[in-house]
Amino acid sequence: MSNLLEVTDLSVTYDTSAGPVTAVDHVDLTLQPGEFLGIVGESGCGKSTLLFAIAQLLTAPAGIAGGEVVFRGKNMVAMNARELAPIRWREMSVVMQSAMNALNPVKRLRDQFADTMRAHGVRDKAEIRARSEDVLDLVGIDRAHLASFPHQLSGGMRQRAMIAMALLFTPELVIMDEPTSALDVVAQRSLMLQIKELQDRLGFAVLFVTHDMSLVSHFSDRLMVMYAGQEVEFGPTRQVFDTPAHPYSRGLLDAFPSIKGERRPLEGIPGAPPSLSALPPGCRFEPRCPLAFADCATTEPALYDIAGVGSRCLLADPARIGTETRRAGDHD
Ligand SMILES: Nc1ncnc2c1ncn2[C@@H]1O[C@H](COP(=O)(O)OP(=O)(O)OP(=O)(O)O)[C@@H](O)[C@H]1O
């Protein structure tokens, strides 16, 4: 099957007073039609910047420093605003972290939906009304709420309203940036189930960013783990969960409770990610890595293929497997 989205060698920099900071560093990914791809990592690792770069929504001081975002066969990086306009909402839509920031607080839902449809060429009032009702039905919000202002809805309903808006044109790709993060655990779970159910019914692909790996464990087909601007592991979700190839993925898994799994103490990952303006010379995870050995401090790992999973860890380097020694002083 041909890919719906192909991101190749994508880099994004922020211009800061101390010079450019690379927040997304040579990232590659592919997405097939109807696929659910989870992107996980700690705060500040570049997840949102990557999504914004894919959607061509970056604004200064951020800019694409290199690479391609090919969506339905066309490189969006090379497009101008006029060329991007028909793709947005109709073929690719974005659901932001907080509906309270994304929805206009002084407009009723029906007016916000109508504005979006008019901006994309739909003029017929009856069509706008019918489609607005349809998408509210889809996300399980009573049609009467078309007359509501965002503050009259609960947090979960607001996020659902955002998703309804993203589905106005039944796009092929919905990009979601932590859409459940403002909700309590029960509302999070029910929204995730609804997103999955909508995806199954309508067939769109999803790029879903979260810092909570357990949230996507039952929903995503593949998982990309990011650390300090780079992808450090990429593979089928089950495989990454069952046998994480990168020590950082292992640490992330230990940091969140499993919904169904056995009870065990949560360990977290000691330390903090490096500053993107002062990266260590070798592996970016080396200062926090329980498995680091001498070369990790000096050699930058590539993304090695290990049984169908990409892992940016020297332990996965085929040339080294079995030869590495653990850091002096490390004993079990
Ligand atoms: N306006 C900015 N100016 C300079 N650097 C920025 C700016 N916004 C983000 N960055 C840099 O980009 C990095 C990635 O930020 P980004 O928001 O993409 O991370 P994230 O993984 O989505 O985090 P979160 O989960 O907290 O949203 C940050 O660590 C920071 O160094």
Automatic annotation (TrEMBL):
<keyword id="KW-0813">Transport</keyword>
<dbReference type="InterPro" id="IPR027417">
    <property type="entry name" value="P-loop_NTPase"/>
</dbReference>
<dbReference type="GO" id="GO:0016887">
    <property type="term" value="F:ATP hydrolysis activity"/>
</dbReference>
<comment type="similarity">
    <text>Belongs to the ABC transporter superfamily.</text>
</comment>
<dbReference type="InterPro" id="IPR017871">
    <property type="entry name" value="ABC_transporter-like_CS"/>
</dbReference>
<dbReference type="Pfam" id="PF08352">
    <property type="entry name" value="oligo_HPY"/>
</dbReference>
<feature type="domain" description="ABC transporter">
    <location>
        <begin position="5"/>
        <end position="253"/>
    </location>
</feature>
<dbReference type="InterPro" id="IPR013563">
    <property type="entry name" value="Oligopep_ABC_C"/>
</dbReference>
<dbReference type="GO" id="GO:0015833">
    <property type="term" value="P:peptide transport"/>
</dbReference>
<keyword id="KW-0547">Nucleotide-binding</keyword>
<dbReference type="InterPro" id="IPR003593">
    <property type="entry name" value="AAA+_ATPase"/>
</dbReference>
<keyword id="KW-0067">ATP-binding</keyword>
<dbReference type="GO" id="GO:0005524">
    <property type="term" value="F:ATP binding"/>
</dbReference>
<dbReference type="InterPro" id="IPR003439">
    <property type="entry name" value="ABC_transporter-like_ATP-bd"/>
</dbReference>
<dbReference type="Pfam" id="PF00005">
    <property type="entry name" value="ABC_tran"/>
</dbReference>
<protein>
    <submittedName>
        <fullName>Peptide/nickel transport system ATP-binding protein</fullName>
    </submittedName>
</protein>
